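Dear colleague,

Thank you for sharing your sequence with our group. We've completed the structure prediction you requested, and as agreed, I am returning the results in plain text so they can be pasted directly into your records. Please verify that the sequence below matches your submission; if there's any discrepancy, let me know and we will rerun it promptly.
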Amino acid sequence: MTPNAKGALLALVAFGIFATHDIVIKVLGGTYSPIQIVFFSVVLSFPLATLWLLRDQTSGTLIPRHPYWMVARTVAAVITGFSAFYAFSVLPLAQVYAIIFASPLLITVLAIPILGEEVRLRRWLAVLVGLCGVLVVLRPGQTELGLGHLAALACAVGGAFASVIVRKIGREERTVVIMLYPMMANFLVMGALLPTVYVPMPIEDLGLIAIVAVFAWIAGRFLIGAYNTGEAVIVAPMQYSQILWATVYGALFFDEWPDFGTLVGSAIIIASGMYIVLRESRSTTSGTPVLNTRSRPETGTSPRIGSFMKPFQPKK
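Please find the predicted structure tokens below.
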């Protein structure tokens, strides 16, 4: 098996596990508030995070070198995590994925003011086409839009914003700092809000939350292996396999079937995202924000994938 084929296979496994992780969130979301789910997911992630962060051998303190950017990233990660968990709880899975898939498009746009990168006409057109795909999924005026749709959009925007900030400060901040602050913020914010929504949890539901925590870290490990094995341009599009998992899982467990608008909009968004990845892979400059992101929108409950991999190197 070639390195690219192995990398693609590892990525497919990773995103299959991520999709299963999202199914468990949806099941729990039928009973519990996203605040409670996020809080206990973070609590149960701390032992895994501790083991993971022991790998960080760089010297330094836990004080960020870029405190303002770290605050912005932490706020974005908290919003992203809550929004993702809420969206998965109330919307059909395929629809949530379709909207979240807009994140690479937003990364391309946000890289301009934050990273000072140049986006040329073709990528701008891809972004505009992809955003039209989001409108096809949402169909404002034809379907009733609710807080779930707003949450999915907030997840896409917040995840893109957090990712671009990591690209800006990631080389100067310790991995432990980048990972720990969103986790601690989720713990403190969700913990403060927990008394307002708390519902007693039987041991089996705590077990499901443990599965959420473990699956996020296992999937993250597979994804790191995928990017360290295969080329980013091959591995990155594998994230779109989640729409297939969403269709299968939605039909099997929730009697959800994606409608025609969701399928068409998803196809447009995926095509736009893949085009941007392809254009970046051929770039001879450092303007590759999407290929250097390489993970799902961050929730603060799983490892920041890009922190454990070398940056994508554009062609010379």
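Summary note from our side: The chain has one domain: 3-305.

Kind regards,
the structure core
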